[in-house]
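Reader question, answered in our methods column.
A reader sent in the components of a multi-part assembly and asked whether the whole thing could be modeled at once rather than chain by chain. We filled in our standard form and ran it. Here is what they sent:
COMPLEX SIZE: two components
ENTRIES:
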Amino acid sequence: GQNIDQPTEMTATEGAIVQINCTYQTSGFNGLFWYQQHAGEAPTFLSYNVLDGLEEKGRFSSFLSRSKGYSYLLLKELQMKDSASYLCAVGTYKYIFGTGTRLKVLA
Amino acid sequence: DADVTQTPRNRITKTGKRIMLECSQTKGHDRMYWYRQDPGLGLRLIYYSFDVKDINKGEISDGYSVSRQAQAKFSLSLESAIPNQTALYFCATRQGLNQPQHFGDGTRLSIL
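And here is the structure of the entire assembly that came back:
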């Protein structure tokens, strides 16, 4: 079967670093995507990992371990605007999404 | 202008009505998807299409049908709407396997 697990909610302080984990089980794997979704809005693409290791994009980094079925999204220098849900998605020609992690950034 | 456009943005209707949600894109992508999003359940795939002649069921296709009228257009229909189909619906497009999905702004559908 296919399954993705993410924490439901996290809270962090402005300026801090937060790590959002994603574990998955899937019958087919071509890559793992992270999306950001503000309340009531469309998801927007953040990062993509297909090989093991760390991908860095400004304040955002994403890590993948295919052997462990594990990824994390690292957000540095948190800003209030980072308050959103973060969705992990895995698959091949079709993707399965996790239920998302709602991040609250406090002043 | 948005690359992926969904219409309507909001719709309130009654149980038993037939409803069509439309999606059009200017990105030139072959792959198009319909999802619904419910609180606590994340995005769930309803149908997807890789070209005009290719339609595939997703995780939760019961009660829904789709039509791919052209490369740029992919419509979702609820033949006889029921209240548990109340949700936020998203259309998405994608260029290829290693490319991200691009989402429309969503249609908020309420069935009374």
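What stands out: The first strand of chain B starts at residue 4 and ends at 7. The radius of gyration of chain B is 13 Å.
Send us your own complexes using the same form.
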